[in-house]
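Thanks for the sequence, V.! I ran Asparagine synthetase [glutamine-hydrolyzing] right away. Repeating your input here for the record:
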Amino acid sequence: MCGIWALFGCDDCLSVQCLSAMKIAHRGPDAFRFENVNGYTNCCFGFHRLAVVDQLFGMQPIRVKKYPYLWLCYNGEIYNHKKMQQHFEFEYQTKVDGEIILHLYDKGGIEQTVCMLDGVFAFILLDTANKKIFLGRDTYGVRPLFKAITEDGFLAVCSEAKEFIGLVSLKHSMAPFLKVEPFLPGHYEVLDLKPNGKVASVEMVKFHHCRDEPLHALYDNVEKLFPGFEIETVKSNLRILFNNAIKKRLMTDRRIGCLLSGGLDSSLVAATLVKQLKETQVQYTLQTFAIGMEDSPDLLAARKVANHIGSEHHEVLFNSEEGIQALDEVIFSLETYDITTVRASVGMYLISKYIRKNTDSVVVFSGEGSDELTQGYIYFHKAPSPEKAEEESERLLKELYLFDVLRADRTTAAHGLELRVPFLDHRFSSYYLSLPPEMRIPKNGIEKHLLRETFEDSNLIPKEILWRPKEAFSDGITSIKNSWFKILQEYVEHQVDDTMMANAAQKFPFNTPKTKEGYYYRQIFERHYPGRANWLTHYWMPKWITATDPSARTLMHYKSAAKA
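Predicted structure:
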């Protein structure tokens, strides 16, 4: 996890522009570099480093003697870099996983390069010999990337959108606000670099869909999967791929930890991590981390899992006042005002703060992406058909970069941690999506039935955790009697009055908030990012029901389950 930044065709003082790069310094607390491009005084790169792999030679932009015309700034991890190096017999100059991007590009061009990368990434690749710039981002957008471009060809690229606020060059755009956009996941873009340092976009290409088996699967060393959709065959294949997803993500020189809510997903990740760390003979015990208010179901469940797997477990307690006070910082870090994203981010932000301050874990695993992939949200019980549930699952995966992946990245990156999400592994997710739709839907009133069934005989986690129903996040970290949801409603009731709500459409014509909580978040967002409401295209909301609030507490299925 790092912060990358680049400007092309910048007509203003670069020392002033360099200050804007410091807005993402939290993403790389270990080192910073600012470098001009030879022959282009108005083009530069900035890099904030979190040293996770090759601490000695890992600074960026990466340049190697063999390709003096290539400049690379990237944020991410390429898990198959050694496999690619060995297969194609590339001569490495460093031990940095990203160096593989330079060799693959020289060998086969940009399209083959991005298709061969097994990992998470956002990159800026400059080829001064061919006067080209390439931008690329992984399939699910696990690593963030934003860009802004003016009418005259000034280009700014950065890991977080906050870097663009106050950039001098952006104020010279003809529009009142330069259009800042998240770079689309699963795409790469080709731009021409002109002699004056300005750019022109040539093409934007989608290189991978989450359903498709990735090209790099041809070269990996996963044991052979069995064909067919017999249930035992599918379960065996899923276990193989999930184990492999965890194993490849052990690539780091820093200590590994794991977020543990006591739910199915994080428990499976933590248990598999413990097993694999023992197999690789790592000389430390896995640290697991849970957060909640006193008597929260999550804390009790996480404690049970930690005792079962033998992790060094940390519990972080917070109260309602601390949660409320964190909202401003959280919204600033997130760059969004989406209601459910903000709600769910407070706990993750506070626990990341604790990890950074009190432990030496830097690389942190979590269960993000499973709900979207395995149809874990409670509203999937309302799906009219398996095919409609499949469509919704793919839509959620496509939009992860706006919601859960955004939350997971910003809340951890704000405190200099690197998050790893094995459920979004290319091979695991594409295989899961290839299964017949009827295999993936909730069964016997239980969501993620196939995933639970897959690990039923493994003894990885306690049976009561394996079959624990999904909690609304607000109920998991607090208690059902006084949930985070309820605490927030009571607080915003005193912050936003009925008159303000009556004028909401006039004050906020785009994505008009329908609730006082939504109005309150929007106010904070506008204070930090005035006029940038279009960074969020739409609110996250459950489907197949009529709802003005995204909370699972509003769903009849959840209410009846909570009473049971």
